[in-house]
Amino acid sequence: MLWLLPLFRPARRELALVEALLLLGSGASVVASLGMGWAIDAASGGGGIGWILGGALAYAGLVVVSAGLTWVARTRIERVSQTAMLALKERLFSHLLRHDIALHDRIGAGALLARVSGDIEAMRLLFSEVILQLPGDIALVAGMFVVLGVTAPHLALIVASTVPLWVGLVAWYRWVSPAAFAEVRSQSATLSGWMAESVAAIPLLRTMDRLDFAREHTAALGRARFGADLRYGLQSVWFFNGLFGVRAAVLGAVVWVGAEEVAEKTLTAGVLLVAVDYVRKMVEPFLRLQFHITTLERARVGAARVKDLLDTAREVVDPTDPLHWDGIIGPFTLADVSFAYDSGPPVFEHVSLTIAAGKRTAFVGPTGGGKSTLVQLLARFRDPSAGVVAMDGRDLRRFALADLRTDIGLVTQSVQLLPGTVAENLGIDPQHTGTLLREVGLDRRLSAATRVGAGGETLSRGEAQLLCVARALAHEPDVLLLDEATSAMDPDTEARVMALLAARPGRTVVAVAHRLKTVAAFDHIIVIDHGVVEQGTHAELLAAKGVYAGLWAAQAAREGLPARVGAGREAR
What we know:
Layout: H1 12-47, H2 49-98, H3 102-106, H4 109-131, H5 134-151, H6 153-161, H7 163-200, H8 202-207, H9 211-263, H10 269-311, E1 332-340, E2 346-355, E3 360-364, H11 371-378, E4 386-391, E5 394-395, H12 401-406, E6 408-411, E7 420-421, H13 422-426, H14 430-440, E8 451-452, H15 461-473, E9 479-483, H16 491-502, E10 508-512, E11 524-528, E12 532-536, H17 538-544, H18 547-559, H19 568-571
Parallel strand pairs: 3-10, 3-11, 6-9, 9-10
Antiparallel strand pairs: 1-2, 1-4, 4-5, 7-8, 11-12
Helix pairs in contact: 1-2, 1-5, 1-10, 2-4, 4-7, 4-10, 5-6, 5-10, 7-9, 7-10, 9-10, 17-18
């Protein structure tokens, strides 16, 4: 976890002050007990009750000083740790914002949330509760041994003889706890990820009558988490009981031996009291050490996961020497393009096609044939496994991503809206928002100040899709990519959207559609099924009596579309 140290470099002076305060607090705790012992011995030697009262006041004062110094140190530690971890969260979140969508193919939203929040919180606890406070605990134990070694060597030997037991307990716990804790973390991550996904899918689960399945699966994951927690918790109980058992044995031995020496006048009562108080305090660092071990394991696992995420390189990157951006002025071409997700089978191979600039092109075909993947290649959310995707004859990989995407609007079949106002979701001023809402037909339902929830929960699915279309149009992109963007709209609304898209001449529109009537009037239609199967206009494809004609006929039987060959004009 050394890679985290630069986060604390700006606070190195603050940390030096913190360590000094903790050491002073430990020293005050050691001196408090010693001072009380001296006061008792002075009173026993004829000094009177005043020594007892003075010693008690001094003891209380030093305890207050020790607690005060520790409190100041802990608040400063917390501030430093929170600041450092905030910087790490911002770095990680920025990394996720810049990362390509291939990352989300491998890691779900619940797991990413756990890394940004839970794992970083574990690292904060490591620094605030362990690393920065450990020197104070070491100083406390060392100081007590030094004082006992000077004032009561025999008692110091008794206490020292039990150190192997303390260390053995810690070593045992350190040996058994990582595996148990790893199981807890694994079960917790599985349960958290499932809960995050299933809660969002409750309406779907209810619609599909799968609530019983969700309930049973959640209960099974909960039982597995409970079993892991129980095994880990019992290990902690045994560790605690072992520590208190050793302390009880040490206290008994110290009191027994010390009382005999006091009776023989070879040891004073004050020194015996100091020894008893030190043994009582000595267990505290070891108890904290148990917590430290837990925190260390949690932070170690969390740091490894966060580091792994930060080290995950982007697959889609900016070129070192990008070409000058003149806007999208030419056609898109795919030359011998192949693509596969990670090490999976190819989605398509050796695809070559041209998407004319300023025209409307549709991708149609069976589900899973690669239509959405082609759209992602055009937006350069992904790069091809082989071949070249070019604009105006220039490889898209030669352009800066920010330049390319400035002129591309995208609407996907999944609704993605953020909590906030409509204007905030569209990213434009309220006046422009009102104009755009009128154009898409949402002005009676929404205004610029209307608040919508994550995913558009306050809207119908059709309204949410329509708002996503408005967002894509807000900045007047030269290219509009529509991936089933109107699938949830009624026919009239869909027709209005298509008319709106056609109203601006010169805009390149690429649409993925399963409902063929949506794109029948497009300039060019390409049938995709793990490659280019056929292409042409609606009329040409119907006349060819191929795959497209079969799809049209199947939909015609269901939806009452004109089914005869050559019915293209009627569809228009």
